[in-house]
Design a protein that fits this description.
Elements lengths: L11 H19 L5 E8 L5 E10 L2 E8 L9 H15 L4 E6 L2 H9 L3 E7 L6 E8 L5
Parallel strand pairs: 3-4
Antiparallel strand pairs: 1-2, 2-3, 4-6, 5-6
């Protein structure tokens, strides 16, 4: 009988064992994902990263995991420019769609202005907010 171990501090090797096994399963089930990281960095005049976008492309989709615009650049259209650049790269990589999630009402409106549409909601995540899941077609096939 297998044993369970609950931990809040798994090692990188332990996480890799799970990830590698899941990747092998998915590759056999639906084919390789072609997963590639994607990041667009905002740097200040000293070269320090102050914000940007981070995610990946896989199975023909762009997933934006993190998008942060520093306070000094908010309201300047920076988030839209970051998304547009990531989407352009995703199309170059053969992607047909993009998705993102947020619980920020402000970010939700930014993403909607960029053409993203809500396809799911998770109420009270975090408490008092709703996490929205949005998607966007990047190509006619998407």
């Amino acid at each position: 009988m297998p044993e369970f171990e609950l931990t809040s501090s798994p090692s990188p090797e332990e996480l890799a064992a799970i990830g590698d096994a899941l990747t092998a399963f998915n590759d056999a089930d639906v084919g390789p994902s072609g997963r590639q990281p994607l990041a667009i960095l905002i740097r200040d005049t000293d070269g320090k990263v102050t914000g940007g976008l981070s995610g990946y492309t896989a199975w023909g989709w762009l997933y934006t995991q993190w998008l942060y615009v520093p306070d000094t650049l908010r309201g300047s259209g920076m988030a839209g420019r970051l998304l547009a650049r990531a989407e352009e790269e995703a199309v170059d990589r053969g992607c047909h769609g993009a998705w993102i999630d947020t619980f920020s009402p402000t970010a939700l409106e930014v993403y909607r202005r960029q053409g993203y549409q809500v396809f799911g909601e998770l109420p009270d995540f975090p408490a008092g907010r709703t996490r929205f899941f949005l998607r966007k077609r990047l190509s006619p096939d998407g």
